[in-house]
Amino acid sequence: FAGEIPDSLFKLCYKTKFVSLSHNNLSGSIPESITNCNNLIGFDLSYNGITGLLPRICDIPVLEFVSVRRNVLSGDVFEEI
């Protein structure tokens, strides 16, 4: 798998609990639609080429685990995290 993370991946994810897309040569930014995943407990997007700002993931109520290491993200991490 390579390329950008499609926005549609997170549009209908209301039952998804964990997403692991590490080591996939992904590029582009993390879609803002990830914040629609209210049951998401964790996601691993490590070891890709993801750029841009981290979406406001602190609004996901049950989120416990996030791994975005070895990417090229910019900006500040939200204080709530």
Keywords:
mainly beta; LRR_dom_sf; kinase
In summary, what is this structure?
The protein has no helices and seven strands. With 81 residues, it is mostly beta strands.
What does it look like?
With 81 residues, this protein is mainly beta. It has a three-stranded parallel beta sheet, with no helix packed on it. A two-stranded parallel ribbon has the order 1-3. The chain has a single domain (3-72), classed as Leucine-rich repeat, LRR (right-handed beta-alpha superhelix), CATH 3.80.10.10. 0% of the residues lie in helices and 23% in strands. The chain contains no helices and seven strands.
Write the layout of secondary structure elements.
Blueprint: E1 3-4, E2 18-20, E3 26-27, E4 42-44, E5 51-53, E6 65-67, E7 72-74
Parallel strand pairs: 1-3, 2-4, 4-6, 5-7
Query: Helicity, in percent?
Result: under 10%
The CATH topology annotation reads as Leucine-rich repeat, LRR (right-handed beta-alpha superhelix)
State the total count of DSSP E strands. 7
The poorly predicted ranges are: none
Radius of gyration: 12 Å
Strand order of the largest sheet: 2-4-6
CATH class: Alpha Beta
Q: Output the helix-strand order.
A: EEEEEEE
CATH superfamily: Ribonuclease Inhibitor
Strand content of the residues, in percent? 15-25%
Any idea how many domains?
A: 1
Protein name: Putative LRR receptor-like serine/threonine-protein kinase
Organism: Noccaea caerulescens (Alpine penny-cress)
Keywords: Kinase, Receptor, Transferase
GO molecular function, one term: kinase activity
